[in-house]
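User: Teach me something about this protein's shape.
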Amino acid sequence: MGDGDELVKYRSEDDIAIISLDRPEKRNAINAQLSSDLLRHLATAEADDSISVIVLRGEGKTFCAGHDISRSDPERAKWRRHAIRQHQYLSAGLKLATTIWDLPKPLVASVQGHALGVGCILTMLCDLTIAAKDALFGEPEIRFAAPATAMMMPWLIGLKRARELIYMGDMIDAIEARELGIVNRVVAPEELEEATMLYARRLAKIGPESLSRAKIAINRIMELQGIRNGWNASVDVIAPLYATETPVDTAFRNQVSETGLGPALKWRASDFE
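Assistant: First, the predicted structure itself:
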């Protein structure tokens, strides 16, 4: 874990900011504090004129395993079946996505282990992604009656493959992710850190003014194709489902209560073997 209560670490090397998710004991699963810490450090990097490029990475063996579904929040439990409150909660979660999207400086995702759920979305939001060969990507939330929000896959990999991955919740390896356009470069796990920094340093040699204009121009093209409306629409459509008690959701939560989260995840995964 980072200094004090920090769940995200920040450091810089010359004109590169390195932001590290620092919750390895929870596989860097995102909770409210980690999201808040990450937003704050992104703002720091944006405000620092000496920074041209940002690297986003995760401490430990996993980049990010998704949202923290192990936490117990009594207040949230009171309105879990409240569709309007669920919509407000999911809309607030879009702030991280839109912040990364709107940041004028390019982000390079450095991925090892798992990039699942919101972790996968983070890698797709980053401008460029370099991954260890053994990294795994996917959005398995649908298996727990909670389809992904802030959907990006249809714009990145095409409709048919996006449907397959989102509908089934399967994981793909780094090689397939590169073939689909989710990943730019794949390297040996032991080379990831050095390769990421070489990649970021090469990018930083481009003028920051040119980088920011190029990023905005590409973003505008994607926005004309509807990507930002797609994020909002996904929240509009999915929030009522998050508030609905479904057989799959009920069975999974009962299993969590009986055996704990880890065994419950294995129990659910066994249905797809």
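Now, about its shape. The chain has twelve helices and nine strands. The longest helix spans residues 83-102. If you'd like, I can walk through any region in more detail.
User: That's plenty for now, thanks!
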